[in-house]
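Why does residue order matter? Because the sequence determines the fold. Keep that principle in mind as you read this record.
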Amino acid sequence: MPTKDDGSDKEKCFELFKNIGLDEGTARNTVANKKVTTNLITVINEAGVTGGCERTVGNLLYTVATKYPGNALPNRPTLLQYILTSKVKTAAQLDAALAFLAATGPDNLDLKKFEEACGVGIEVSTEDIQNAVNEVFEENKEKILELRYRINVGELLGHVRKRLPWADAKVTKGLVDAKLVELLGPKTAADDEKPSKKKKEKPAKVEEKVAPIAAPEKPPEEELNPFLIFPNPEENFKVHTDVHFSNGSILRCCNTKELLDKHLKATGGKVLTRFPPEPNGYLHIGHAKAMFIDFGLAKDRNGGCYLRYDDTNPEAEKKEYIDHIEEIVRWMGWEPFKITYTSDYFQELYELAVELIKRGHAYVDHQTPDEIKEYREKKLNSPWRDRPISESLKLFEDMRRGLIEEGKATLRMKQDMQSDNYNMFDLIAYRIKFTPHPHAGDKWCIYPSYDYAHCIVDSLENVTHSLCTLEFETRRASYYWLLHSLGIYQPYVWEYSRLNVSNTVMSKRKLNRLVTEKWVDGWDDPRLMTLAGLRRRGMTPTSINAFVRGIGITRSDGTLISVERLEYHVREELNKTAPRTMVVLNPLKVVITNLEANSVIEVDAKKWPDAQADDPSALYKIPFSNVVYIERSDFRMQDSKDYYGLAPGKSVILRLVQVILADDNETILEIRAEYDPSKKTKPKGVLHWVSQPSPGVDPLKMEVRLFERLFLSENPAELDNWLGDLNPNSKVIIPGAYGVSSLKDAKVGDTFQFERLGYFVVDKDSTAEKLVFNRTVTLKGTYGKGGK
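Structure:
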């Protein structure tokens, strides 16, 4: 029989194992096995994660503790460092690493061979896996169509694994399953029948060779359907979430037939989703992913998506944010099915709270916030938890009538204070705030909490799919507990990973500091990842949605997506849509001495590389005179072999005009040059330029703003002094750039490709006297060429 101390030690081990992300069942099974417990504690101490770590890391550490080869113990610290730094981050990589270490034994590790053996540095994206799945299905299409759901899925997965040995196994399995449904449709009764055995027959000889049918082109990532993973509304009778209580009972969450039939009758079987932002800040690129999933699923299934303002906190909401959100949602290309507010349902929410009390599932509590925190930490019930139902009903009515002071009472849900899930620790349903509500007025002095309101409003609005980010996964238990306790319809809940982009921050608190402390120029500063900032920078909703779609709807949390991937999609679009023009940022005057001083000719320039000369709409006029301006960086006093610009004694071609220039070496403030009408020289350098529109008149002057990464580090949010990581050169203003005269009519929001410089957009700070351009992206990036 175990001693009291033994029990205490086991509980400590159990909590330690949960802290590294093991689920409760695995943690308890591990504690019951002394050998595995000893090994895992040693690995945790060796890795230095006694304070906890991410679940993915913890699962890998568990595998190390259970499978590490005993002959290679000296090399285990090295493997742990690879895991902690996410160089080894998948089960496939770890299996390969363990096999390599078993073969190496205690010998010194050849890190280069080790990294090659376990795929260190190889990134496999969801679209890479999808492309491989498409190839495998195309190669095995005939066999799949013949066998249908009797096909050996393991064999298909093996073919994908051969192509991408480091792909995430769960993602691969999900995409293969989805592809089967896409190709074959839903399972039929015939698919479930056992195949009858047939005698083998010799194949008949083929007299003539049949010409092979050309395989269809593989669809690009933007055409793949990421929404196949979600069930249809009529399937929402299945149990997909279990809520475990501390007394050993289990709530298996599902709708009754009556509830589901009532829901389907109300909706006509349509998919209904919701995008529920809080109106207390500006939307950022993470919200673009949420919009893509919420609105995208509804659009894919011919349903609708509510734009619902989660306005339960009367002190945080502002009309500025409400107007911004609606405008940005539509700018992103989404049309709400209905625009609603949580406050629209305050009366229904109040009535359901009364019903919850009557059913014995809620009580009025008088603990202070500090006392609530202390009792939760100790897993203790509130002293008012078991007060009579009648007493709680009266006190809740007193709260509603404003008879109790703010902070003196709350309504709490009677959930499970001894649960392993802290989101079941009797969450607050209502609190007192003597603050008028921006939308509901001064009718209420009690307001519902998010944990109480959002699931009920989902149910009241007949939402079919309640989709949110993974940090809400632990709230599933509370979500379903409340709907079950009230006996109302339960939507299908599914969580996806947050979108984390490099070289920026996206928490509302950090963004608010950047704006309010004037580190940036407002919520729409082009350096921010707010959607207003991205729009002002010249990024389009099409490219942002393509970026989000390419990432996919995954549950692999913690992945940091390089901002270069977003810029890649922006370039892809702007390359097709932004007309070409010429601007010189740092002008250097060039006087062509053998051209007539007072003559100006107009030359045709192409707006697009493939523009036809006989299409006037694809051309624009550029004045050309004997005074032109080139980039200061395109001239040097000293020439070199790898330099293609202008230098004393060296020729170049002016872009479009084919004039040969040769410097007379007088001064770099003004170059005097000649052109060679016979074109005897064959220069390699081709420069862009801007000319005086008429004799003695300067070209169109403009301000150009060059933007770089806002932060120097890829993940500044991890830093204690994250403000110290701000890039001092994230914004460079060039006040005296010259542009061709055709730009004078450009309007705010117009985009252009400045030849050799990048893609630019007209900024809202432009005036009739001065145009202002923001650089959207440079002409080239590294994504797709070895970049992340």
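The chain is about 35% helix and 15% strand.
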